[in-house]
Amino acid sequence: MTVALKVHFFLSLLFAALSTALPFSNNDAVATIWTFPNETWVENLAVRQNGAVLCTSISRAAIYQVDPFSHVAATVHQFDILDGVLGIAEIENDIFVAVTATIDLATNMAKNGSAKIWRVDMCAWSLGAPNPISLISNLPEVGLPDGVTPLPTDPGVVLVADADKGLIWRVSTTTGAHTIAISDPAFKYTSPLVPIGVNGLKILDDELYFTNLAANLIARIPITANGSASGSVQKVSTETLLPDDFALAGDGTIYAAGYNTLWRVMPDGTTDALVGGPNSTAVQGITSAQFGRTREDGGVLYISTTGGLLLAPAGARVHGGQLLAVNVGLFG
Ligand SMILES: *[C@@H]1O[C@H](CO)[C@@H](O)[C@H](O)[C@H]1NC(C)=O
Ligand SMILES: *[C@@H]1O[C@H](CO)[C@@H](O)[C@H](O)[C@H]1NC(C)=O
Ligand SMILES: *[C@@H]1O[C@H](CO)[C@@H](O)[C@H](O)[C@H]1NC(C)=O
Ligand SMILES: *[C@@H]1O[C@H](CO)[C@@H](O)[C@H](O)[C@H]1NC(C)=O
């Protein structure tokens, strides 16, 4: 064995040892990290720099933390039950914002004037420590606040998708002051039967990527540093069904949650169902996806689910919402 090979062999062993720290074997394509109690609709995820995953719940009006390495879950904050939690995003190191609204789960409609934005400071959080949550502001003009993403050059401002009004709001993370950042027909829902338009939001290279759930649309629009549009909407894929939130890899590959399916959309628009399908229970009730952030789980896609509270596959058993892990490296 040459020195280089020995080093490579040693690194392989080391990597294998680190990998076993993950809560699943390297050959598992999809693993269950945590199952919440029944009727816990997990809507959105944010991964902390230490690897722990923050999970928001609409139905339980709570933010939970799950450590995917130790399989330990904890409640970060229990909101008033009327404040169902939707999107969450990191704005500074270990400081997040989350949006809430009073949602009727039978119709998916938000109560008018119920939207709020909160600051979630995880820096000093530990079990039993002082409450890390503070209200930034009510958002009375926002209909159904959904996806949240910070402006890359101005973490004092987030863009918030309004799935009901079909708008993107620009919201100050210090005062909650909000104005319409972008209005475009591509954000509107297309049928009153599915009153959810623009939903997930992510920014990559001066382009805002978004999903429109009712329109089966994934698209992008160029934006300026302050989140205004600087060009027109370009379709990326119209083949994903009911796309909800998504993870965006650095090369532009999209991993979108939608209709019991994890969809993969390549930068050229090629779309396939990576895991599951409308009638599959593999990722039943999938709502969002986020990549791990540590050296060990950077290639792992964490997925949140409702457990099947909405559009459960025919004959499927509805169970508690889950945090799942998908080993995307195993897919060609
Ligand atoms: C979970 O809740 C759903 C909806 O209320 C119900 O239909 C289902 O039977 C419950 N499942 C279990 C395992 O209790
Ligand atoms: C919703 O609330 C806003 C702000 O409070 C108000 O201006 C608007 O008239 C309300 N719309 C409906 C349909 O009630
Ligand atoms: C955003 O920036 C553009 C120029 O890049 C400017 O025209 C526009 O007024 C700005 N909007 C806000 C709300 O700051
Ligand atoms: C799902 O199952 C239903 C009823 O069994 C069937 O009508 C439908 O075509 C199936 N959908 C897909 C995408 O396979």
Automatic annotation (TrEMBL):
<dbReference type="InterPro" id="IPR011042">
    <property type="entry name" value="6-blade_b-propeller_TolB-like"/>
</dbReference>
<feature type="signal peptide">
    <location>
        <begin position="1"/>
        <end position="21"/>
    </location>
</feature>
<protein>
    <recommendedName>
        <fullName>SMP-30/Gluconolactonase/LRE-like region domain-containing protein</fullName>
    </recommendedName>
</protein>
<keyword id="KW-0732">Signal</keyword>
<dbReference type="InterPro" id="IPR052998">
    <property type="entry name" value="Hetero-Diels-Alderase-like"/>
</dbReference>
